[in-house]
Write a structure and sequence with these properties.
elongated; single chain; disordered C terminus; 0% strand; mainly alpha; 9 helices
């Protein structure tokens, strides 16, 4: 924690101090309101100053949890190849409200999620190529699940990438 505010600092100085911190943080990457609030608090910015600054930033469009949720969802799906369940968890962890998270996730079509799972599975399958087919299927099943893909997506991608369902693993819970 670098410089903290002194109690005798004027309100205008407190706002300017908080503004500089907030702009620097937002310059590094976009953040949710909750993340920015948390970082300002960690730097010793009083709650009333943080709330005033966050309100101003919201008014001028520098902070928007809905836009943040949309961008994070797209990045995690298209670049990181995460499923919707994992993205929802990350949005919650970052303090995005349920309405904004649900709206962002609802914009993702089944085919988009399927394509992300497929791309991840194809990459992972190359590393599993030398393994017994049951072991490879089980490991890929687990990897896709940890990535947050729904059961229907996982089973579809497994069949596509590794071939038809193996009778020994057909009873795996999705």
């Amino acid at each position: 924690m670098r410089s903290r505010l002194c109690p005798e600092t004027s309100r205008a100085e407190q706002i300017e101090f908080a503004r500089r911190i907030a702009l620097k943080l937002l310059d590094l990457r976009s953040r949710s309101e909750a993340e920015l609030r948390e970082r300002l608090d960690a730097r010793g910015v009083p709650e009333d100053i943080s709330e005033e600054l966050i309100g101003r930033f919201r008014e001028v469009g520098l902070l928007d949890d809905a836009v943040f949720a949309d961008a994070l969802t797209r990045t995690r799906l298209q670049v990181d190849k995460h499923g919707l369940a994992r993205i929802r968890t990350e949005l919650r962890r970052r303090g995005v409200g349920e309405d904004a998270a649900t709206e962002a996730l609802s914009k993702v079509g089944h085919e988009e999620e399927l394509e992300a799972a497929r791309a991840f599975a194809q990459r992972r399958a190359r590393a599993l190529a030398g393994l017994d087919s049951r072991v490879a299927r089980r490991r890929l099943f687990g990897a896709l699940g940890r990535r947050g893909f729904r059961g229907s997506v996982v089973s579809s991608v497994l069949d596509e990438v590794l071939g038809e369902t193996d009778p020994d693993t057909d009873d795996m819970a999705l």
